[in-house]
Specification:
alpha/beta, 4-stranded mixed beta sheet
């Protein structure tokens, strides 16, 4: 067990939420709202671009981070580690975490920053790495980990599926070294042979953005081939069981599960597969849509605020994303 705990959480979304009917009118698109609501559980979302709000990834991350810092009751200058988990960074370089540090700490400080880019598993993997760094470096008393998503900035105006699913938002946690804290374990899983399912393939060294690429509409989010429909239903129970086996812990000891908030019906199937009551999990896709790298800390924040997760509860985070990357965390809140 590692002596690091969560002492503050924060969430930020830009502008007023956009319901499904309003989205169709704002974006000039059509989609099956009934199916979206009944199967995926998405009723509304936040989209800075459609609201005409000039905010992007670093803005979301900074605002969520400051809310978490305020909730933790600490001075931003006390933070020695800032990590941002995202696959929609502000720039290719410099890292988004560097911008967040500058905005929060206002200059040169004895702090470390870096981004974790592992698609929608970015926050869980960043959380795990932050805990391990803090556990081995006694000079870092506090850390900030932010999961942030700005995928709508990469979606083409005609992509009805993308606009209906993906949304803007950020969730953050403040960490503290504490000898009594119990970060129990993690379990990661990767399959890089699945890199060509869905992603943003333009703008890097392989495919620089050129007039020809823009003309062919190969910029932004692309779905190159369908994702396996049962992927998370297969993966999440398998990873949970592996994580619990690694920690030598019975599933009955887990008080709450937070999963990637992509599909409510999938989460329900996974809880059934794990033979756990649905009351031991949380859903926020109804109010936020799918916020990728941000959705796990956002769901955790609300579960804490609404009293469904209490201090002393044992919690599992489970996130997966394109690539394929999976990250999980087992800890006592």
């Amino acid at each position: 067990m590692l002596p690091v705990e969560i002492i503050g959480t924060g969430v930020y979304t830009p502008g007023e939420a956009i319901g499904n009917k309003e989205l169709m009118a704002l974006a000039g698109i059509e989609f099956d709202a009934e199916k979206l609501e009944n199967k995926l559980g998405i009723h509304k979302r936040h989209n800075a671009r459609l609201r005409g709000i000039k905010e992007t990834t670093a803005d979301f991350a900074t605002r969520a981070g400051l809310k978490a810092i305020e909730a933790a009751g600490i001075d931003p200058q006390q933070i020695g580690l800032i990590m941002v988990g995202t696959d929609t960074p502000e720039f290719i370089t410099p890292a988004t975490s560097i911008l967040v540090q500058g905005r929060i700490q206002k200059g040169e400080k004895w702090s470390s920053t870096f981004d974790v880019g592992a698609s929608c598993a970015s926050f869980t993997i960043a959380f795990d790495n932050a805990v391990r760094i803090m556990a081995t470096d006694p000079t870092i008393e506090y850390g900030l980990v932010v999961g942030v998503y700005n995928m709508p900035a990469f979606i083409r105006d005609t992509d009805a599926f993308g606009l209906s699913i993906f949304a803007d938002g950020a969730g953050a946690v403040v960490l503290r070294r504490n000898p009594e804290a119990r970060y129990i374990s993690s379990q990661l899983l990767t399959d890089g042979t699945q890199w060509d399912f869905i992603g943003i393939y333009a703008g890097g060294s392989r495919n620089p953005v050129t007039p020809e690429l823009l003309k062919e509409e190969k910029q932004g989010l692309l779905s190159l081939q369908p994702l396996p429909g049962d992927r998370n239903v297969r993966l999440w129970p398998m990873v949970v069981k592996k994580l619990l086996q690694k920690a030598q812990m019975d599933i009955a000891k887990i008080d709450h599960f937070i999963f990637t908030q992509i599909n409510r019906s999938v989460i329900e199937k996974v809880m059934d597969e794990l033979q756990q009551p649905h009351s031991k999990t949380s859903y926020v896709m109804d109010r936020y849509g799918y916020t990728g790298s941000a959705c796990v800390p956002m769901a955790f924040h609300h579960a804490v605020q609404e009293g469904r997760i209490k201090k002393g509860d044992t919690v599992i985070f489970m996130a997966s994303g394109a690539g394929l990357a999976v990250g999980s965390n087992l800890f006592v809140y």
